[in-house]
Write a structure and sequence with these properties.
The complex is a heterodimer.
Chain A lengths: L10 E4 L5 H11 L3 E6 L11 H8 L3 E4 L5 H12 L3 E4 L5 H4 L4 H7 L4 E4 L16 H8 L19 H24 L3 E4 L2 H8 L1 H10 L22 E5 L6 E5 L3 H10 L14 H6 L1 H12 L4 H10 L3 E4 L3 H6 L2 H5 L3 E5 L5 E5 L4 E2 L17 H8 L4 H9 L4
Parallel strand pairs in A: 1-2, 1-4, 2-3, 4-5, 5-6
Antiparallel strand pairs in A: 7-8, 8-9, 10-11
Helix pairs in contact in A: 1-7, 6-8
Chain B lengths: L9 E5 L5 H8 L4 E6 L23 H6 L3 E5 L5 H12 L3 E4 L5 H4 L4 H7 L4 E6 L14 H8 L1 H4 L16 H24 L3 E6 H6 L5 H8 L4 E3 L2 E4 L7 E3 L5 E3 L6 H13 L14 H6 L1 H14 L2 H10 L5 E2 L10 H5 L4 E5 L4 E5 L5 E2 L17 H6 L6 H9 L4
Parallel strand pairs in B: 1-2, 1-4, 2-3, 4-5, 5-6
Antiparallel strand pairs in B: 7-8, 9-10, 10-11, 12-13
Helix pairs in contact in B: 1-8
The chains are: A alpha/beta, B alpha/beta.
Amino acid sequence: MSNPLPLGGVRVLDLTWVVSGPQGSRVLADLGAEVLKIEAPGRGDQTRRTQGMYIYFNRNKLGISLNMASEEGRGVFRELVAVSDVVMENFSAHVMERWGFGYQGLRAINPTIVYVSMPGFGHSGPYQEYQSNGPTIQALSGQSFMIGRAGMPAAGWGYSYMDHTAGYYGAMAVLQALYYRNRTGRGQFVDLAQYETACNLMGVNILDFTVNGRSQRRADMPAGNRSLYPPGAPHGVYQCKGEDRWCAIAVFSEEEWAAFRRALGDPAWAREAKFATLEARLASQEELDKHVEAWTSGLTHKEVMDRLQAVGVAAGMVQDPQQRAEEDPQLRARGHIVELEDPAGRTVRVDSLPMTVSALAHDDYRLAPQSGEHNQHIYGQLLGMPEEQVQGLAQRGVC
Amino acid sequence: MDGKLFEGLRVLELTGPMGQQCGKLFADMGADVVKIEPPDGAASRKIGPYLDDIPHPERSLSFWHYNTSKRGVTLDIAKPQGQGLFRRLAEGADVLIEDTAPGTLDALGLGYTHLALLTPGLVMVAITPFGQTGPYRNLKTSDMVSLAMGGPLWSCGYDDHSIPPMRPYQDASYHVGSHYAFIGAMAALVLRQMTGQGQYVDVSVHEACHATTEGAMPIYYFNNMRVRRQTNRHASPRSSQPVVFPTADGKHEFTRVPAERRAWEQFVEWMEAEGLGEGLRNERFRDPEYRQEMGPQLTQLVSDLCARHGAEELFHEAQQREMVWAPVRSPDENVRDPHLQARGFFVEVEHPELGRSFQYAGAPYRFGETPWAISSRAPLLGEHNEAVYCGELGLSQEGLQALKAEGVV
């Protein structure tokens, strides 16, 4: 690469594990930072048990092993802090403090260090020792509650959306703190409580309560696939031909409704007064949905999407992972999915950083590191330890 | 130090519902974000709920939330005079965030190639459903349609697959797109600090959603298997035990039988104290694999336990025992949460036009030196026309009135 990368020359000490933290440091690695993924020797990140997950969330990083539970290991970490720009971790609150690496401790070693800590509940308050993972935060913040059908218990997220999202906020925090440091020469500490990040995203529901006094816990919630704001009908996910095949359809304006009817061949039912206006359609949604599904179920989800898009109606297949990986012409045209080679010579696919920026290419991605793969490089070349010393650390279980 | 992180940074925002979250991230960290709306208001002013349920462009709570700390001007960029003013605004800007359809600004002579000639340091971030290129770039979408195409919907819903996949919470796809747009803008700004050069950042909501489905893609890429949706749990190729159960107070609890040894011991003690622990002291239960095998029985125990207690009580009892449980709260049930209260999460925002103030959701992260803050409520329509057009671009009052009469502002 001849172009400088946004985070070229920035070194990140990455103590994160599982998904949220590694997602955050992966963004930084994709932007050109030298991310040193630090893992306990012999144990490693628990996602190593599912190789695909490990590779997906840790590409472009360097791997070193270090036993932070030992005094000698913490001594090596101190040396690393002195030559790094950023420290990132998603331990429970206060783990770092107990090791002497709270912000004050880190700053004493490196006065301009940027330290982003991502515990579930933050560094203060009555829940600061509580434990969480993505689903915990999703349940507590109200996100899980908002997903599902009225009259049924919530269905919740089908994955840890908040692990991704807390990771994004972790990366955003680092980028902002580096921007500020470039401007002022000052580092800083960021306390990122995933619980608060998640609640911030529910701000409109919060206002509906604090302004209008309306709780979302009521008989007509969750709203399923209907659209309350802005109102629209038909608005739903409809069954199509084949097993577990669906198409999402969203009709808001009267023009879109007219186009929708045209795409269906202007059937008699659609001309009835009960479907004539948005207000009427909202009042007759259940019946409307049955008519729509009678049409969609005779077609493939691709056919439904194509016919509606042809007349300017928002419609999209519910794409499964296979479709996205193998058939999605948009992801392919934009070169989103990147192929790498693993040590055994097999092709391994990962999703690239989802943006197109002239300063960034996605053609120089590196596979996720083996645990400790770069020990020699980092301890030997960066810290200048003689080979025997690195070997000694390894023998004593420090790296 | 109580400085602003983005002190002196000027951001222009030309967005509807898709990109406004990106502008909020800049605004609440201290950038001077000027939101440019058409003279009849941004589309996001027409999204409810509304103050007292009365629809009005100044009463949208959705607009209120996503546009805090911004200033607002009106401008019709379809008119030549509007384009001239837009160029002048862009000349003084560091960042431009926009979510118009691909090609819209180019056709008006306001695309990146035009603006970068005037302002080489400009960072321009375009957020669109599919990106600026590719066969899908002109397809029509909504929040839900983006979540269908991008993959989140495939993973969300119920065990019963005769029920359609379920849409995640409102605006989730716009959040994901805006978060990546902000990351792209920040990367470009940091690069600009080194090179002085601006950058064009093209963000596709479709790609952003696709890259935000956790295990779905790696499990397909590596194991060639498709995940399947399950009620309240991770979509997976294999079905797993239920984890959310009804509680005695008519709510629900997210639970997990602990895998870690210490938490397991505490779980057993708790179950014994409840008289539900019979047999759990059996040596075989110390083996996590055996516990996996006994999943249905353990699930029944947890379900029985939940039926006896309230959701909040279970939360604290479980957390005292190092277990990651939580009540399935509605979003508003967090307003009185003692932890958020103690940390001062909710912030009071004044609405001088109403003579009232309201509690808003607070900081998504806490910066030690440069605090996140809502500096003002969302702008009224055209509230800062005079300050920006007269005060900064040097238009006369009469000139501004004339523009108003011609429908340019």
